Amino acid sequence: STDKPSTDKPSTDKPSTDKPVRADEARGYERAPGTEPEDVALFVPRLVLAVPRYALMVLFFPVRETISFMDEHALVEETVDFLYNDERNAAVVPTLALDSFFGPSFGLKAFHEDLAGHGEYGSIEALFGGMYSLATQLHFRAEHYRGTRLWLESLARYEGEPGQLFQGIGNGQVSSSSGELLDPRQGSVATRFSEQRLLALLRAGYAFGRPSQLVQVGATGSYAVRDLGAGKRGNEPSIESVYDVSELVGFADRVPVLEADLNLIVDLRDVPGATANGAYFEAFAGRAPSLGGPYSFWHHGAELTGYIDLYKRSRVLVLRGMTEAVDGDAAGIPFSDLPRLGGPHRLRGYSSGRFRDEKSLLGTVEYRYPIHEYVSGALFFDAGRVSPSYSGLFKGPWHFGGGAGFNVRSRDHALFSFDIAYGDGVHLHLTTSDPLRTFSDKDTDL
Hints:
Elements: H1 37-41, H2 43-59, H3 61-72, H4 75-83, E1 90-99, E2 103-112, E3 121-129, E4 132-142, E5 150-166, E6 191-210, E7 213-230, E8 255-267, E9 278-288, E10 297-311, E11 315-327, E12 340-341, E13 355-356, E14 359-372, E15 375-387, E16 399-409, E17 414-422, E18 426-431
Antiparallel strand pairs: 1-2, 1-18, 2-3, 3-4, 4-5, 5-6, 6-7, 7-8, 8-9, 9-10, 10-11, 11-14, 12-13, 14-15, 15-16, 16-17, 17-18
């Protein structure tokens, strides 16, 4: 053998007697990093928000633990496997909505998100309970139909609502009835009325740009027929027992309204689901002609929402402003078509339809913070007012609502939100659409 004798020496290593490395030294910095400018800038906001942050941590502790349990046992993945097709673009899913005034609604929805291979969306759904005795809807939407710039949307819908809220027109102050029927513009008594509505809608337009820089211009035609009557659900009295319904335009007769609008959408959000920065603007303007009947008016509205990234896409400040109005002879504007405030999209803290008049104005400040990969918490404050005139919007008291909630969303989709808000009482809202998209419930939100 030509092997050389080993020159290795027996090990003389002894058990280490070094002290454990301190946690703040574990990264091995040659020089400890100093205070970042962003830490200084955020010190005061963090201090101010510390109290509500920890209060919400306690409030949403069950939510966070439920999400952790679902992650641990892959419940979401197993549920998706069961409900969706292999391509994950079609499913039949149960639906749930909640409004503390109207109660919970349950239903079923079948949808396909890629009907023609370019993101064309189609759905059919039905909903029961809550504000509905029955609501059914067939919906189609394509922002780039068959890969072109053609923007198309169509809708057919029926709603039976046996217990809609009516609490006067404007900001009435009379909160009780002395036996005489109240003027709808003076009273502020909560009552119920029933409504059946058939709606057909067709929208066509052109889309410019791409996601995060999308502009859509189009026109919408809609035809709605409403039949109104006495309230058939709820603990509040029926409308005709409190108000002089002869003063309510369209209450005693069938109300057919054909409306033609021009539409503009400018979507500059970085992503439509977990939005951290950008802006969203939507506006419409059009007219409902008389069709040989008594009802005729102009209708227009606009909404601007801005998203400001406060810290690494995890903390976001949202600012929203919205206005909606109808113009024309008051005798030709059905009270059911007056702009309204209240509910999950318009002045949280109040029931849907709480305030209505010819003009409305709404502002929102919302702060969003992370809870989970797919869940963000929210602190919000809404302020709104209705009036028969534009100048009246800035006179008299405003209506305020605020609260907290959480949004469940993916990168590209707002899945659902849950809010607890206080205005004229405590209100709970669970909805499957973005609460800051004011006009999402104007025609197509079910």
